[in-house]
Design goal:
By secondary structure, the chain is α+β, with helices and mostly antiparallel strands. It has helices at 4-17, 29-32, 66-78, 99-103, 114-125, 130-145, 154-163, 165-176, 184-195, 201-207, 223-236, 242-248, 285-298; strands at 40-45, 50-54, 60-61, 151-152, 197-199, 253-255, 260-265, 269-274. The protein has 2 domains: 4-63 and 198-298, Beta-lactamase, CATH 3.40.710.10; 64-197, Beta-lactamase, CATH 3.40.710.10. It has 13 helices and 8 strands. Substrate binds at residues 64, 114, 160, 167, 191, 239, 257.
């Protein structure tokens, strides 16, 4: 087996030599100004050791990756009841598709597309104030990462609120189908804030340890739930690019429009990669390339 640290150093060098970094997301103005030519990768192995290369000290907006944590929290609070409101199938559509929600009568395909994550956030809220729900989400993420230095970027949350017209359309559509228990404004206020959590790749890889299912790593949810969260990540974690990610990378992963990806090698490692330029599915371009190379070199595909 090749030496992991050497492989990570090579991935960092390859990324920096690349001509194409992809395009940063433009629909959240605060993210549109981020330099796409950045790269970081951190890996926590089953023995608890952290291996990394690149800009691993730079915090970035984790965005949709937080949907994994809110799903874990919701399943803990509401259990299988969530599945009466959200499906478990790949969407085959863009993460912010409106047409699919209409066609399917207000029941989102899965908890990782925006419509599904808005329902999940509504379930995390329950009857609580947004501040209490956000405190639970931040507490979960900090506990998982073993770091108190993880925060919400209020400017990013405000930027998305001001320009979140598609998410407001989705939330109102959900409400029209009685699939929200709170007002669209309250749910989206909470959703935009948890999406605006910032982490470094080191913190994110640490936060992913609970999904690895290895004896020495923190256990936050049951083994059965770990399997199910990983199944959702594999089938739905990259939206309409999930099949391509499974084909090329071969492990469960969840992307965010800030250019981060959390990927899990079951029983072996948690990986966080970040490069802000995106591919046509809205997933990190260089991050995906690096993960494909990493799983090939380390023989980490689950297939
Ligand atoms: O709701 C949104 O559009 C963003 N807060 C999150 C979307 C996202 O990260 C999509 N992932 N690639």
């Amino acid at each position: 087996m090749p030496d992991l640290d050497s492989v990570l150093q090579k991935l960092d060098r390859d990324a920096r030599a690349a001509a194409d970094w992809g395009q940063v997301a433009s629909y959240i103005p605060q993210l549109a100004g981020v330099d796409p030519a950045q790269f970081a990768i951190s890996v926590v192995t089953a023995d608890g050791r952290l291996h990394q290369a690149g800009d691993t000290h730079v915090p970035f907006s984790v965005q949709s990756i937080t949907k994994v944590f809110t799903l874990a929290i919701t399943l803990g609070r509401a259990g299988d009841q969530l599945w009466t409101r959200v499906g478990r199938e790949p969407s085959g559509r863009a993460f912010n598709s409106i047409v699919q929600l209409e066609q399917e009568n207000g029941r989102p395909r899965n908890p990782f597309i925006n419509a599904g994550a808005i329902v999940t956030t509504d379930a995390v809220l329950g009857r609580r104030a947004p501040r209490e729900a956000l405190a639970e989400i931040i507490r979960f993420v900090r506990t998982a990462a073993g770091s108190e230095d993880i925060h919400i970027n209020e400017t990013v949350a405000a930027s998305e609120t001001d320009f979140g017209h598609r998410n407001f359309a989705l939330a109102h559509f959900l409400a029209a189908h009685d699939n929200l228990t709170n007002s669209p404004e309250k749910v989206l206020g909470t959703y935009f804030h948890h999406c605006a959590i910032e982490m470094t790749t080191a913190q994110l890889a640490m936060a992913g340890r609970f999904l690895v299912h290895a004896p020495g790593l923190p256990r936050l949810v049951s083994p059965r739930r770990i399997r199910r969260l990983n199944a959702m990540m594999l089938t739905c974690g990259h939206y309409d690019g999930s099949g391509d990610f499974a084909y090329r990378v071969g492990i469960p992963g969840k992307s965010g429009v800030g250019g981060g990806i959390l990927a899990i090698v079951p029983h072996t490692a948690a990986i966080a990669v970040w490069s802000p330029g995106l591919n046509r599915y809205g997933n990190s371009h260089r991050g995906t390339e690096a993960l494909a190379e990493l799983t090939t070199r380390m023989d980490w595909s689950i297939f």
